[in-house]
């Protein structure tokens, strides 16, 4: 795990933010890579790359069940609470504009 440029690594693309927000929004859900890609209207390969990166940071758990790999957010990771602000950005910005 790297300890510099973490924000850039985790938030540097629309795909990374979309995967992270989806996983934070449903912390108990187990996603397959294809399911998450379909939900985000993204390519499965890029979604799996993002999940692999998050796995290297320990931000997600990877579980193999038969031929399927399931991914869940690591609720105990120190970054999970710090990144949960992403869930509220849209709601708070709309409220502030009113």
Structural description of this entry:
With 98 residues, the chain is of the alpha+beta class. The chain contains 6 helices and 3 strands, in the order ααβααββαα. Strands 1-3-2 form a 3-stranded antiparallel β-sheet. The chain is globular, with a radius of gyration of 14 Å. The mean pLDDT is 89.
Give structural attributes.
98 residues; alpha+beta; 3-stranded antiparallel β-sheet; 3 strands
Secondary-structure topology with pairs:
Blueprint: H1 6-11, H2 14-25, E1 31-32, H3 33-40, H4 44-57, E2 60-65, E3 68-73, H5 78-83, H6 89-97
Task: Provide a compact summary of the structure.
The chain has six helices and three strands; from the N terminus they run ααβααββαα. With 98 residues, the chain is of the alpha+beta class.
Helix run count: 6
How large, in whole angstroms, is the Cα Rg?
14 Å
Number of strands: 3
Percent range of helical residues: 55-70%
Largest beta-sheet characterization: 3 strands, antiparallel
Order of helices and strands: HHEHHEEHH
Overall 3D shape: globular
Poorly predicted runs are none
Percent strand = 5-15%
Mean pLDDT: 89
Structural class: alpha+beta
Q: What's the arrangement of strands in the largest beta sheet?
A: 1-3-2
Q: First CA to last CA: what distance?
A: 42 Å
């Amino acid at each position: 795990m790297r300890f510099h440029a973490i924000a850039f690594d985790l938030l540097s693309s629309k795909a990374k933010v979309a995967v992270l927000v989806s996983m934070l929004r449903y912390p108990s859900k187990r996603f397959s890579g294809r399911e998450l890609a379909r939900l985000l209207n993204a390519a499965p390969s890029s979604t799996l790359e993002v999940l692999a990166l998050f796995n290297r940071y320990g931000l997600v758990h990877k579980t193999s069940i038969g031929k399927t790999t399931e991914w869940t957010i690591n609720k105990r990771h120190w970054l999970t609470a710090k990144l949960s602000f992403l869930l509220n950005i849209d709601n708070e910005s709309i409220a502030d504009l009113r």
